Amino acid sequence: MEIxxxxxxxxxxxxxxxxxxxxxxxxxxxxxxxxxAIVLEEFRAGPIGWIAIFLLLLGVIYKEDWLFDVNTKTxxxxxxxxxxxxKTQLTFEEIGYIQLAAFSKGxxxxxxxxxxxxxxxxxxMRGKDxxxxxxxxxxxxxxxxxxxxxxxITKNExxxxxxxxxxxxxxxxxxxxxxLAALIGCSFLDNIAE
Length: 194
Known about the structure:
The protein is α+β, with helices and mostly antiparallel strands. About 35% of the residues lie in helices and about 35% in strands. Keywords: Membrane, Transmembrane, Transmembrane helix.
């Protein structure tokens, strides 16, 4: 399941990139409803009910938030499950650039096939799917899963994954990357290196 991250501007000009409050409310509401149903049935839920409760609980306690604070010129990241969150703290000066990078499941890194799949991912993101017109279901099954990742890269070449989504829906990552780069004052790369 893909958890959609949202870019939200705050009153002070800072940007928040993370899981929206509406997602947390929906997960919490479903957890309460399913939990109440299980209590009303005197805890006689089957395995599927308990699995659903567990997955909803994970959805409620998962956190993936990045705050780009314009006042302190810092980036703060919290990722993980409560109470075991991985914290990241960077200053704007440490950030080299923000980049969109293609990722293709099912390819060998550095191969010609990966290069071709990466190009296909960026074309798919821009609405020009070069893989249209497949003749058989066998060709459809062989298609690579194309993703676009939004990366924050420091001047020391440390990579931080901000978000990743299927290529056909990645235009929102480009918009978020441009806004974040403009706030930080760094460059934004959204093309494949030739």
